């Protein structure tokens, strides 16, 4: 399936990486990571840092799947508000998930600093506003539970939001100073390049895995060209394309739309350049870039058919432009390029990380939802710990034991 179409800004901004290295013979390694996007890149980095021999396999060019189309907002807030998640999976587990996301934002920064990868990482506030006055009650509940557990949050009245951020909201808002943004494509390609150079990481592109089987001492995968990859463990970091490895469907496919403006004079941007998103479902989200462009995303649809998704791009672009104009009417916005893509969501807003029950050699690092990048950092750490026999308390929150309750 085409994971995106249109003109994703990040490939234009960075230029497509010229790396062509299909597997042309049988190969053996300790761990094989499937997927070269930001999830696979973070996973491979954690493994290399731990001294675990691994390789990365992708049927496309490096990071040209969902990562190339990601708008890359890094927030500890999850698509399902904490107050609602607590009712679904228990307050303790929900708080653990939120705290893990909060920590992962800092951990991603450390990884980029340690490797010298310039991925446009920038720490910024996040503004989460009520889409209607009726949602003020939800924000109050959300504020109270976050405050209870000492998560960073401030509750602002509608007037305060308009005065401080110049955003024409129709309700109150929650603000935190612990969010960030980056370029997921540049991060993925940079991390893989770093580990190829420093740790001898093998990355095989244009190599499609057609089948796999577990053996008593490992796994054997067969490529589209008939080559065998023998490994101790497989880690699937391929987003919703992990379906061929999953015994059961655990995600819902969603089409989303995004557009980016011409560069805007700095004085026209809103104060602090904070990330902006709302309580509506699907929600509108807004961020800036290091070149003073504005990215708008949203208008999600619960289908994934590429032709149907792509046919709506012009219509969705007009809707997003109109919504932005209503929210920030004083900013001159002109679309330069637009794109659409497919991503996966789960019913509780959480990723799936770890072994599928009964498959001890097969791990999944599936950062579904709007927090895909922060979930990917968490997944890389959890799975790396599990491979080393290190207990990680976060695994009980993001594992597969919860499937029976909602799926």
From TrEMBL:
Record-level GO cellular component terms: cytoplasm
Residue span, FAD dependent oxidoreductase domain: 30-384
Pfam families: DAO
Gene3D superfamilies attached to this UniProt entry: D-Amino Acid Oxidase, subunit A, domain 2, FAD/NAD(P)-binding domain
InterPro entries hit by this protein: FAD-dep_OxRdtase, FAD/NAD-bd_sf
PANTHER family: PUTATIBE OXIDOREDUCTASE, SARCOSINE DEHYDROGENASE-RELATED
Protein's name according to its UniProt entry: FAD-binding oxidoreductase
Organism: Bacteroides muris (ex Afrizal et al. 2022)
């Amino acid at each position: 399936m085409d994971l995106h179409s249109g003109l994703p800004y990040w490939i234009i901004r960075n230029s497509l990486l010229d790396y062509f290295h299909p597997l042309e013979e049988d190969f053996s390694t300790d761990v094989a990571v499937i997927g070269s996007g930001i999830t696979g890149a973070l996973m491979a980095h954690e493994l290399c840092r731990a001294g675990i021999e691994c390789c990365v396999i992708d049927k496309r060019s490096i990071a040209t799947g969902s990562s190339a189309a990601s708008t890359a907002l890094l927030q500890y807030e999850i698509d399902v508000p904490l107050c609602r998640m607590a009712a679904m999976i228990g307050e303790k587990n929900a708080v653990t998930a939120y705290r893990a996301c909060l920590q992962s934002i800092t951990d991603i920064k450390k990884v980029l600093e340690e490797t010298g990868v310039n991925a446009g990482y920038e720490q910024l506030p996040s503004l989460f506003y009520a889409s209607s006055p009726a949602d003020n009650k939800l924000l109050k509940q959300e504020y109270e539970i976050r405050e209870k557990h000492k998560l960073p949050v401030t509750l602002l009245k509608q007037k305060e939001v308009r005065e401080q951020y110049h955003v024409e909201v129709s309700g109150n808002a929650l603000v935190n100073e612990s969010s960030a943004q980056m370029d997921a494509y540049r991060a993925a390609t940079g991390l893989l390049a770093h580990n190829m150079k420093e740790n001898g990481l093998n990355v095989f592109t244009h190599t499609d895995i057609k089948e796999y089987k577990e053996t008593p001492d490992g796994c054997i995968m067969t490529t589209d060209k008939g080559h065998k990859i023998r490994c101790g463990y497989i880690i699937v970091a391929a987003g919703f394309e992990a379906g061929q490895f999953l015994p059961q469907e655990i995600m819902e496919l969603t089409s989303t739309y995004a557009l980016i403006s011409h560069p805007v004079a700095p004085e026209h941007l809103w104060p602090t350049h904070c990330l902006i998103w709302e309580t509506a479902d699907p929600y509108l989200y807004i961020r800036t870039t290091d070149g003073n462009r504005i990215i708008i995303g949203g208008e999600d649809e619960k289908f994934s058919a590429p032709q149907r998704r792509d046919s709506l791009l012009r219509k969705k672009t007009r809707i997003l432009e109109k919504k932005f104009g209503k929210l920030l009417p004083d900013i001159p916005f002109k679309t330069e390029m637009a794109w659409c893509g497919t991503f996966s969501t789960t019913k509780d807003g959480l990723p799936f990380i770890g072994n599928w029950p009964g498959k001890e050699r097969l791990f999944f690092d599936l950062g579904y939802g709007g927090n895909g990048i922060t979930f990917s950092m968490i997944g890389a750490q959890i799975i790396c710990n599990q491979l080393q026999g290190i207990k990680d308390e976060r695994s009980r929150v993001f594992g597969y034991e919860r499937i029976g309750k909602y799926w």
